[in-house]
Amino acid sequence: MPHTLTLLFFLMAAALVATWIIPQGQFDTRIVNDREVVVPGTFQTVEDGEFLGPITLFTAIPRAFGAAQDIIFFLFIIGGVLAVIRKTGAIDALLGRLLEKLGGRPGTLIFITVFVFALASSAMGASAEYIPFVLILAALCRTMKMDTMTAVGIIVAGYGIGYGTAAFNQYTVVVAQGVADLPTYSGWQVRMGILIPFVMIGAHHVYSYARKVQKDPSVSLMSGITPPESGASPKKYPKLTTVHITILFSFILTLGIAVWGIATRGWYLNEMGAAFVILGLVTAVIGKIGPSMTAKEFVKGAKELTETALLVGVARGIALIMEDGEILHTIVNALSVPLSSVGPELSAVGMMIMQTILNLFVPSGSGQAFVTMPLMAPLSDLLGISRQIAVQAFLFGDGFANMIVPTNAVLMGILGMAGVPYDRWFRFCLPLLAKLLAFAAICMVAMVMFGYS
Q: Are the CB atoms for 122 and 198 separated by under 8 Å?
């Protein structure tokens, strides 16, 4: 497999070629809740659409960096701040303490962390918020004789399962139910009920892999890959002091404030970045690190995430080209037509598969909801399926596909930060995705049979 950056560039080229082959088309749109949604039954091809020449492949790259600037600069800030925190010894001291408590119980560590990440994503749509934990968890897993892939598996499995079984996620549940004209948060009891079984599937997959690596390090998918310097495990762990505890408390408090702002004030990456800049300055004061040393550590940490920033930018370029080529609506229309010719149970599963495929082209959960739910909601009426099931098909498809599609900027950020090549992550994640989708298909059929509404 080529380098991940090369792979993403090839995918950009494939997207450009697709715009030459797939007919351009558009649905009519209308404004709902200040967002543009498509109108079912209005699809028509565009005869005089704009042709994207080969030069588009190259102009799309700087445009994509501009479109993804919020998460790119957030990554630089996170890398710099974590480097400052690490300079105080607080992270290494925490790792040492965790090893004392959980060193002999990797299964407990994996299940608890997958569950916590899944619950946070299900309840409030957390995703980019997990990036600060990547290097910390990677160092902990390697010290427990697992590998970096295990750490990334824990985070991404929790993130994807949480979105797939989202109960109150404002980015997916609220938007999808609003477009489908359903009461906000309706059906949350069912989604919370299926969270645990999915978490068990995800945790078991990660744990099974981790146990194999512990028994035989040569089977590690990270074999031959040097981990990032900032994520290396120390040979000796310092004692956890009051200063360290204060710094770690400040870290947790910052995350708490960021989560509160996202949930109640409409904050996102810009405000989160500002919160972490403040955390870095507070850490320097508490840890008694001078201004010059703080600046040097910050630059060092940010510099290590340059490759990650490049991956995020180029990944955004894939979707950008397809948007410019006006082929997205054509793909949506083509995928939705066959669903009208099968029974309700298969239609429900087909909706989920359709949403999974579309996530490659529209990795944004809210964006995908505005594109597909105006079509899926009335289609579900015609097929005798409740709109609640159509929403669940969207949640399963969007959430689980987030774990593997290279157009997902948060996923590429996590992989880049941990130094995990995409092709190796694909080998780890594809079996997990198959397990989750198989169980999700069973859930979809059961929901149709029992009349979930």
A: no
Which CA distances in Å does 267 have to 96, 270, 356? 34, 7, 28
Q: How far apart are CA 149 and CA 2, in angstroms?
A: 19
Q: Is the pLDDT of residue 221 over 90?
A: yes
Output the CA–CA distances (angstroms, integers) from residue 399 to 9, 80, 110, 121, 150, in the order listed. Answer: 24, 29, 20, 10, 20
Written as one letter, the residue type at 228 is: P
How far is residue 444's CA from residue 389's CA, in Å, rounded to a whole number? Answer: 7
Q: pTM of the prediction?
A: 0.79
* Residue 356 near residue 404 (C-beta atoms within 8 A): no
Alpha-helical segments (H) within 27-183: 56-67, 69-87, 90-102, 106-124, 134-143, 148-164, 173-179
Rg (CA), the chain: 22
**Angle, CA 316 vertex, CA 5 and CA 203 arms, to 5°:** 75
Whole-number Å distance between alpha carbons of 47 and 338: 24
In this structure, what are the phi and psi dihedrals at residue 246, rounded to the nearest 5 degrees? -65, -40
- What is the percent of the chain with per-residue pLDDT over 70, rounded to a whole number? 96
| The predicted structure's pLDDT at residue 78 | 84
Residue 158 near residue 118 (C-beta atoms within 8 A): yes
Using alpha carbons, select from 296, 155, 150 the residue that is nearest to residue 227: 150
Cβ(125)–Cβ(170) below 8 Å: yes
- For residue 290, the number of C-alpha atoms closer than 13 Å in the C-beta half-sphere is 3
Task: List Cβ neighbours of 350 (8 Å cut-off, separation of 6 or more).
Answer: 338, 339, 342
DSSP codes of every residue in 367-380: HHHHHHHHHHHHHH
Q: Which pair of tokens denotes residue 280?
A: 């870095």
